[in-house]
Write a structure and sequence with these properties.
Number of strands: 22
Oligomer: single chain
CATH topology of the largest domain: Ribosomal Protein S5, domain 2
Order of helices and strands: HEEEEEHEHEEEEHEEEEEEEHEEEHEHEH
CATH class of the largest domain: Alpha Beta
Shape: globular
Distance between the termini: 60 Å
Radius of gyration: 21 Å
Largest sheet: 6 strands, antiparallel
Number of domains: 2
Helix content: 25-40%
Number of helices: 8
Structural class: alpha+beta
Length: about 325
């Protein structure tokens, strides 16, 4: 009977919960393909980090010590798994556009971008925004600040607190509307303000060089900083200075580095890859990374330029 009960607990899902798992950091260079250009080996290696996630089993919820080392039990997002995957793919797609745009602009190339704003896919039930926004609305400004991408929306919300009032401008059909909404707290992150919407954007960029990035099925926006650093290095810019550098952070069109999730697992993944330093967004992300660093050098950064300056200060690797 005990064996049957244990087997049942192992098979049964923990409805409403997922397990975040550690994945060792991966080199970026094999994923980046630059048309008509031979790969530049550079001096050092840039790594990106991700978090593997799967539905939790009931026994993993009830018996913490049975979970994989470094894993975290989190509540599932309040949306369908299909929409969740779609959002992750959209965010990764944006980072694959933004990173080359920012890197080539920094190198002096002529680049351009166009975006119609942030498209609302779904509004979370109970969020104040549900009074105002509907699927297919397009957010174009928040508190008078133009919003071109989800990353820019995240940047505005990053300076707010749950309960703050915001004035949003949005387009519904051909009509431009305005409304005030109150932010709410993100699930599991009581200090982080969100609108309670699930959204995508229609960002397009024009580059003088064709650059493609193979995400290998990884979703989300957090590889943006690592992608940009590697592209710079492949174009001959000295970036890693002979070191193994892991990086995480959502990148905006102006090169700002925004906070991301899963910092615990990403820090452990960087450690497992035996990198020399880990670039992370400033603030709570950096503080959490230091909790799990165990000797790994953590470098907080606010933007791409600061990341490049910080890397020049690393001692020469013997």
């Amino acid at each position: 009977m005990l064996v049957v009960a244990a087997l049942a607990l192992w098979i049964a899902p923990a409805d409403g919960y997922e397990l975040q798992l550690v994945d060792p950091a991966h080199p970026v260079a094999p994923l980046v393909h630059i048309s008509g250009k031979r790969p530049h080996p550079g001096n050092g290696t840039i790594y990106f980090v991700d978090v593997r996630q799967r539905p939790a089993r009931l026994i993993e919820r009830l018996v913490p010590w049975i979970r994989a080392s470094g894993s975290s039990l989190v509540r599932s997002p309040p949306i369908s798994s299909t929409l969740d995957r779609r959002l992750g793919q959209v965010e990764m797609s944006d980072s694959q556009k933004i990173a080359p745009f920012v890197a080539l602009k920094l190198l002096g190339y002529h680049v351009s971008e166009r975006s119609a704003g942030v498209n609302v896919l779904q509004v979370e039930k109970g969020a104040d925004a549900a009074r105002v926004l509907r699927p297919n609305d397009v957010i174009v400004a928040v508190d008078g600040r133009k919003i071109r991408t989800i990353a820019e929306l995240h940047a505005v919300l990053g300076g707010k607190h749950p309960g703050d009032r915001l004035k949003i401008s949005y387009r519904r059909g051909h009509a431009l509307r305005e409304a005030s909404v109150t932010t709410t707290a993100a699930t599991g992150e009581p200090k982080r303000a969100i609108l309670g919407i699930f959204a995508s954007d229609n960002l397009s960029v024009r580059l003088p060089v064709r650059i493609t990035i193979d995400s290998q099925g990884v979703g989300g926006p957090s590889a943006g900083l690592a992608f940009a650093l590697d592209i710079l290095q492949e174009f001959g810019r000295e970036v890693a200075h002979g070191h193994k550098i892991a990086a995480t952070g959502e990148l905006t069109l102006n090169g700002q580095v925004l906070p991301i999730g899963g910092v615990k697992q990403k820090t452990l993944g960087a450690r497992r890859a035996d990198v020399d330093a880990f670039l992370v967004p400033t603030g709570d992300n950096a503080r959490e990374a230091r909790r799990y660093a165990d000797g790994l050098r953590i470098i907080p950064v606010e933007n791409l330029q600061q990341a490049l300056r910080a890397l020049t200060t690393l001692s020469t690797k013997s």
